[in-house]
Design goal:
- The chain is of the alpha+beta class.
- The protein has two domains: about 100 residues, GIY-YIG endonuclease; about 60 residues, no CATH class.
- The protein has six helices and six strands.
- The strands form two sheets. The chain has a four-stranded antiparallel sheet, covered by helices on one side.
- Strand 2 and strand 3 form a beta hairpin.
- The radius of gyration is 18 Å and the shape is elongated.
- The model has no long low-confidence stretch (mean pLDDT about 95).
Amino acid sequence: MSDFPCLANLDYLPYLEGGEIANEWQQKIGVYAIFDVENTLQLVDYSRDIYLSLRQHLVRCPEQCHWLKGFMISRPSRSLLEEIRTAWIAENGSIPPGNGEEGDRWHQPIDARATMTPEERAQLNRTDDLGKIKLLKNTARRLEAEILTTLAQRGVTMQIRFNPKLKEQGLLDVK
């Protein structure tokens, strides 16, 4: 008998409450499952700070983050966390997109270079290192504004700040 609940036995919790992720997840260790608006499982993962992970996922995949289920543990145990994640994925009957083909989208910094116009790409190849940094920063800032607009439309009111150093590489990641 396992010492953790089946995914089906956990209640769906709203991803956002009053425009923010619930404080109860802050600095908590555990496993969580993220669902879209139709309660379709999108990702099962674990974290040493569930709140920070949920915030990252919201920024990277805002349209897929509507509901969640979670199970907290009091002491870190990678083997237990992996066991729960594996059991929940198996219980689902198929691999959620975030644990499969869309894994990078859920876990890696957002690459703003993918949103560059053909003109910006050409300019990137013609310019010196300082010019490249400036162009990548501007591209990242443009994408950042789009992401913040999308989050505002979702009702997000919490502060979202991106790591300024990564913008120089054309990457966006929550600070």
